[in-house]
Design a protein that fits this description.
The chain is α/β, with parallel strands linked by helices. The chain is 40% helix and 13% strand. The chain is built from 13 helices and ten strands. The strands form two sheets. The chain has an eight-stranded parallel barrel with strand order 3-4-5-6-7-8-9-10, surrounded by six helices. Strands 1-2 form a two-stranded antiparallel ribbon. Helix 4 links the parallel strand 5 and strand 6. Helix 2 packs across helix 3.
Length: 341
């Protein structure tokens, strides 16, 4: 397992993160859509992850209505001091008028609840799950800054922000002198490369680390889905994130070909592609079964050649959009040379 510096912090995180959205009890709030591990399997997955070198675990207050945090805390037990816990705030399990979002009231309430469920007195990385359009950004930043100063939170991150929102949040933090976000958690996969248009450039320019969620597009890139057969799984009940399936099957064809030459799984190649991409700090893997997790962990050992990366880049390429399709002219380039003539 390799470790990368998280943004401009002194913190190092494993290139794979264990995501715990599947941590739930049978019949729990997420079980029908995403699956449920139960506590024994959740603990086993944490054990396997630590053995493989993973040192960071990602959850959220809303996952399984808080059960995910509880199960993660129990699975870690006394090992909590040796690893990093990342959780999130914004979504909620209740419907009161002040429950949703990142107001000072919501943040202070939710952090205490998360700390209790996790069985810890601090959170290593506290992430804003979505951009709150109803709360002034200054209020959110000052509340998060207070948590860092109080020692309840070590670092703060953001998730699912647009590129301009990342830039605004960083600029506002600099202006106020508050704690700056050190990481961005976003969706990225071979069938979902939209973050390359604005999110990833913003994160890289401002020095934020990145965590990638749903790297297999909820199982579409696992190898189970082909033109001839769409296997049962998470997408059968929860077809998200949305994808272009025609292009997606072309991508799966290339993945399958590369996987066969390396005696690897399709999922491992899809994950390895992300691990080779510039700006990616850590890829979040999650599973409903032990075998799935073991297979995903193997992606850390796969090296892709420039030719293999080029094949995958080409088949998964985004269609150009304005202003991306405009040429970038510089002094001395063709346009200025024509004017000089």
């Amino acid at each position: 397992m390799k470790y990368k510096q998280l943004g401009q912090t002194g913190l190092y995180v494993s290139e794979l993160t264990l995501g715990t959205m599947t941590f739930d009890t049978e019949g729990g709030s997420y079980a029908g859509l995403i699956g449920a591990t139960g506590q024994d399997l959740a603990t086993r997955m944490v054990d396997l992850s630590i053995e493989a070198g993973i040192n960071i675990f990602d959850t959220a207050n809303v996952y399984s209505s808080g059960v995910s945090e509880e199960m993660l805390g129990k699975a870690l037990g006394a090992r909590r001091q040796d690893v990093l816990i990342a959780t999130k705030v914004y979504n909620t399990m209740t419907t009161g008028p002040n429950d949703l979002g990142t107001s000072r009231l919501a943040i202070m309430r939710e952090v205490e609840a998360s700390l209790k469920r996790l069985g810890t007195d601090y959170i290593d990385l506290y992430q804003v799950h979505n951009f709150d359009i109803t709360t002034p950004l200054e209020e959110t930043l000052r509340a998060l800054d207070d948590l860092v100063r109080q020692g309840k939170v070590r670092y703060i991150g953001l998730s699912n922000f647009a590129g301009w929102q990342i830039a605004k949040a960083d600029g506002m933090a600099r202006l106020l002198g508050t704690e700056r976000f050190c990481s961005a958690q976003s969706y990225y996969s071979l069938v979902g490369r939209e973050l390359e248009r604005g999110i990833l450039p913003a994160a890289m320019d401002l020095g934020l680390g990145t965590f990638i969620w749903s790297p297999l597009a909820s199982g579409f890139l696992s190898g189970k889905y082909t033109r001839d057969s769409e296997a049962s799984g998470r997408r059968a009940n929860f077809d998200y994130p949305p994808i272009d399936k025609d292009q997606g099957f072309d991508i799966v064809d290339v993945l399958t070909d590369i996987a066969e030459t390396k005696a690897a799984s399709v999922a491992q190649i899809a994950l390895a592609w992300l691990l080779h991409k510039p700006g990616v700090t850590s890829v979040i893997v999650g599973a409903r079964k032990e075998a799935q997790l073991v297979d995903n962990l193997g992606a850390a050992n796969i090296a892709l050649s420039e030719e293999e990366m080029a094949r995958l880049d080409t088949v998964s390429a985004l269609k150009p959009e304005y202003p991306g399709y405009l040429p970038t002219w510089r002094r001395g380039d063709t346009l200025f040379g024509m004017l000089d003539d």
